[in-house]
Automatic annotation (TrEMBL):
Segments forming domain Nudix hydrolase: 28-167
GO terms, molecular function: catalytic activity
Gene3D superfamilies in the cross-refs: Nucleoside Triphosphate Pyrophosphohydrolase
Protein name: Nudix hydrolase domain-containing protein
Upper lineage: Bacteria, Candidatus Portnoyibacteriota
Superkingdom: Bacteria
Length: 183
């Protein structure tokens, strides 16, 4: 069965539905979410994508990421994807909205285009990274990175990340985490 997703306009209003493959081939505007697990020590947990993903394979990504399915809100998608991709059950009230952006990116290795409204959330994770369950076939595992390590990345480290995830993690996300109180 093909994944059918909503297509939205520049105001994030639903205007049509198309298969996921067509959306990424043609760069049609759609919705997705990212959830970043933040530890009480102000570290970020990244998901290592599987080698056969159709976009940005074998790179570090948000802890959780996914499309907003037909009929779901951004928050509902974040809760569902968190359970699917980590095995952790959360509630909408556990999510902290970081921001919502319109983002366009191209994966040169696969010729796929990601043109999205992306709602990005933080979730304070108090468990052990070893307790996170990878979604088979979609991820290789999880990695914890400190803010200090993110601030002083080597070129080798930078090459491990999806480019827009790297930019976000080293700018807006790091600033957001620094401002968090009472972890």
């Amino acid at each position: 069965m093909k994944d059918i997703l909503n297509i939205v306009d520049d105001d994030d209003k639903i205007i049509d539905q198309e298969p996921r493959e067509k959306i990424h081939a043609q760069g049609l505007l759609h919705r997705e979410i990212h959830v970043y697990f933040i530890t009480p020590n102000k570290e970020v947990i990244f998901q290592h994508r599987a080698k056969d993903k159709d976009t940005f394979p074998d790179l570090l990504d948000a802890t959780v990421g996914g499309h907003v399915e037909i009929g779901d809100s951004y928050e509902q998608a974040a809760v569902k994807e968190t359970k699917e991709e980590t095995g952790i059950e959360i509630k909408v009230s556990d999510l902290i909205l970081i921001n919502k952006i319109k983002k366009y990116s191209e994966d040169k290795s696969t010729d796929k285009i990601n043109n999205v409204f992306n709602s990005r959330y933080a979730y304070i994770y108090r468990g052990d990274v070893k307790d996170l369950k990878i979604e088979l076939g979609k991820a290789l595992g999880f990695e914890i990175w400190s803010l200090n390590k993110l601030a002083f990345l080597t070129d080798e480290d930078k090459a491990k990340f999806i480019p827009y995830i790297l930019y976000f993690a080293t700018t807006e996300l790091s600033n957001f985490i620094e401002d968090l109180k009472n972890l």
